[in-house]
Recover the amino acids of this structure.
């Protein structure tokens, strides 16, 4: 991914020549901080600790990349990259950090920042429980069940009394997950446990993990009330309805879909046909005809076809034309490597953003 952005980033490096961070922290100090982060298992705690350890510290792009890669999930990884962006000593090397990311959208967020865009705070706020919640009763329940008989409310209240006193979200999550593993609970009890978590994302994660273990699984719509955010409500309800839906039978007579692709043999034959044309106009037209006829090219195959054009205008034309025929559009940024000029790479990136 970094090769797409390297020349673009270089154009912006001059904007940061006067950065107050001219020297990153020494390797010994960095390694000491990294060892601390490496011993933390939860991404949320790791992010908070990383921000504290590197507060007012300068990092090199390579050091920032190493820290980003320690996170298990993309969101905290991007969060820390944006947090530390202003304190990167060698901003002309910032493209190195892109190697730590898997999602195309994350790369674009960093690209926008390099172009001078504002750094948005993507920390998820603590969410207070909704003010009024109706808890379902399990007496007389006769739907799908995940366990035999839930705890009485008295036993539940006694056994979970100290869970809220856990020092952080990770500890609370660990305690309530372990509790459900050992005891049969009702949907109402599962909801009460989820409300001990402060983040809505943690509540959703907990509910999904333990849905199969709940006595009255069919009461899942009640649990939507633990969320304030509509997206989380919808996610929870869709998850449960899909889990409880009867499996769709697969008919043996159904044809098996053949993956759309251009074999290496066909691709090499196409390249040979293009190479036989010495005129720029004919070569350009033939390449378009081949792409539209065969349709199913990988991004790397399109990249090779782009490189076969004589002039940059032709390369750009094929790069844009081939996008609609790529079967792995999330990898299409690789095509930019076949373009020769930084301005062309930037133009293609803007084109892809519009797509």
């Amino acid at each position: 991914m970094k090769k797409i952005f390297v020349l673009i980033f270089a154009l912006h490096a001059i904007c940061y020549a006067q950065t107050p961070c001219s020297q990153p922290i020494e390797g010994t100090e960095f390694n000491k901080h990294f060892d601390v982060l490496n011993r933390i298992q939860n991404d949320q705690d790791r992010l908070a600790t990383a921000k504290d350890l590197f507060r007012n510290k300068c990092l090199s792009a390579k050091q920032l990349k190493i820290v980003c890669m320690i996170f298990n999930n993309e969101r905290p990884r991007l969060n820390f990259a944006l947090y530390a962006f202003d304190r990167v000593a060698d901003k002309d090397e910032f493209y190195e950090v892109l190697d730590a990311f898997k999602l195309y959208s994350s790369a674009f967020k960093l690209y926008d920042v390099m172009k001078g865009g504002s750094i948005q705070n993507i920390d998820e706020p603590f969410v207070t429980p909704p003010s009024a919640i109706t808890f379902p009763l399990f007496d007389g329940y006769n739907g799908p069940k995940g366990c035999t008989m839930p705890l009485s409310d008295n036993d539940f209240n006694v056994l979970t009394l100290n869970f809220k006193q856990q020092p952080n979200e990770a500890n609370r999550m660990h305690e309530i997950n372990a509790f459900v593993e050992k005891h049969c609970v009702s949907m109402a009890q599962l909801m009460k446990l989820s409300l001990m978590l402060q983040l809505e994302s943690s509540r959703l994660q907990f509910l999904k993990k333990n849905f199969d273990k709940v006595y009255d699984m069919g009461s899942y719509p009640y649990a939507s009330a633990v969320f304030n955010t509509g997206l989380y409500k919808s996610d929870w309800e869709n998850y449960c309805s899909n889990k409880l839906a009867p499996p769709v039978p697969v008919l043996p007579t159904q044809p098996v879909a053949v993956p759309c692709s251009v074999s290496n043999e066909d691709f090499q034959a196409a390249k040979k046909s293009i190479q036989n044309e010495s005129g720029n106009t004919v070569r350009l037209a033939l390449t378009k005809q081949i792409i539209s006829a065969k349709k199913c090219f990988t991004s790397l195959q399109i990249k090779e076809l782009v490189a076969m054009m004589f002039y940059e205008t032709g390369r750009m034309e094929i790069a844009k034309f081939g996008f609609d025929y790529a079967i792995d559009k999330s990898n299409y940024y690789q095509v930019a490597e076949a373009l020769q000029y930084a301005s062309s790479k930037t133009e293609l990136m803007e084109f892809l953003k519009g797509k």
Q: What stands out?
A: Residues 40 and 46 are 6 Å apart (CA to CA). Residues 230-244 form the longest helix (15 residues). Confidence is low (pLDDT under 50) at residues 1-19, 124-128. The chain has three domains: 2-114, 153-244, 264-354.
